UniProtKB/TrEMBL annotation:
Top-level taxonomy: Bacteria, Bacillati, Bacillota, Bacilli, Bacillales
Keywords: Membrane, Transmembrane, Transmembrane helix
Protein's name in the database: Multidrug resistance efflux transporter family protein
InterPro entries linked: EmrE
Entry-linked Pfam families: EmrE (PF13536)
Regions that span the bilayer: 31-51, 71-89, 95-114, 134-152, 158-177, 198-217, 229-249, 289-307
Domain of life of the organism encoding this protein: Bacteria
Native source species: Rossellomorea oryzaecorticis
Length: 336
């Protein structure tokens, strides 16, 4: 339950990304600068945090030991996650990007078989392939249906161009983020804490962000002061606070696919925070009709995930099984 609360808190700060990215795009800022500045601004903050905790040397040694996994999975988890999201903001409003992004709650669950864990068996320690937690998957799909209902009233103006440019990139991001995050947890194997892992992944992707920033300079020139300031806010709220909270939550449950899926499903609450932010900042209309029904489904789905994470579903199943066996034994004919 604590991990899910951390996930919801992270979602609140993640929502800043969708709101400000759209704001920057509407004011004429380049998506190339929006994406690169967030991660470049994260570097000095993370350097200070890791130095203050006196564990900089350890993370650098781990990166030197496994440079290719760090570069590859960090690229997938950060670059292929954030660059497509900022690109999509050029073509689609915040509700569309945030709504499509919720595919990640199902994507994370479906990625289970790509990972394995070590278990003790009578014959010794063995590596076992993870399975898709079906109950968690069903709950996540239920939540996703609520997200779709929220988006339905706004979907009338969708065009083929908007689908290709505003939705497909976000689908790529929705799978890349949990894949990169989970693979990096596997690479670190508990040797590094959350701050070290976020710092290492950010440093590993700096060359890519510099290339993207250079492309932004060639295309648009230097960013405006407004875009720089808003990117700084995104870096602090989403890059530092939200990412750290979310990574702490996923680190704690990394060996339990069902609980990990529940934590990842908390990202569905981003839609609620984005809608609230757009109402307050952009005077967007309040949700009604099917949108309200969708909100209710998301809330119910999060409650179901909480119960599932607490193991209540398994306890209930065990209780029913025990009662059934007891009744069967009591009703069985007497044998001599």
């Amino acid at each position: 339950m604590k991990e899910m609360m951390l996930g919801i808190a992270a979602s609140m700060f993640f929502a800043v990304t969708f709101i400000l990215n759209r704001s920057m795009e509407l004011s004429g800022g380049s998506w190339l600068w929006s994406s690169s500045l967030r991660f470049l601004f994260m570097v000095p903050f993370l350097v200070v945090i890791v130095l203050a905790r006196k564990n900089m040397k350890q993370v650098l040694l781990e990166m030197i030991k496994n440079p290719l996994p760090w570069l590859g999975w960090s690229f997938i988890g950060f670059v292929l996650f954030y660059a497509p999201i900022t690109y999509a903001a050029v073509y689609g409003p915040g509700w569309l990007v945030a709504g499509t992004w919720q595919l990640t709650i199902v994507a994370g669950t479906l990625l289970g078989p790509l990972f394995s864990r070590k278990v003790m068996t009578p014959s010794g320690m063995k590596t076992v392939r993870q399975r898709i937690p079906l109950l968690s998957l069903c709950i996540s799909i239920f939540i996703l249906s609520g997200v779709i209902l929220i988006q339905t009233p706004n979907a009338q103006g969708l065009t083929p161009t908007l689908v290709l440019s505003g939705i497909i990139p976000v689908v790529l991001a929705a799978f890349s983020y949990p894949l990169g995050n989970r693979k990096m947890m596997e690479v670190c194997d508990g040797k590094l804490d959350t701050f070290q892992r976020v710092f290492g992944m950010t440093i590993a992707t700096v060359p890519f962000w510099l290339l993207i920033a250079f492309a932004g300079y060639l295309q648009e020139g230097m960013p405006s002061s407004s875009q720089v300031f808003q990117s700084l806010i995104v870096a602090i709220c989403s890059g530092i606070v939200a990412t750290t909270l979310f990574f702490i939550a996923t680190d704690r449950v990394r060996n339990h696919q069902g609980k990990l899926a529940s934590v990842e499903a908390t990202q569905s609450t981003q839609v609620l925070f984005v809608m609230a932010g757009e109402v307050m900042l952009f005077s967007s209309p309040l949700p009604k009709g099917t949108a309200l029904l969708g909100l209710g489904i998301i809330v119910i789905g999060m409650v179901l995930h909480s119960l599932n994470q607490a193991g209540i579903g398994k306890k209930l199943h065990s209780t029913i099984t025990a009662i059934t066996k007891s009744e069967h034994q009591e009703g069985a004919p007497f044998k001599k």
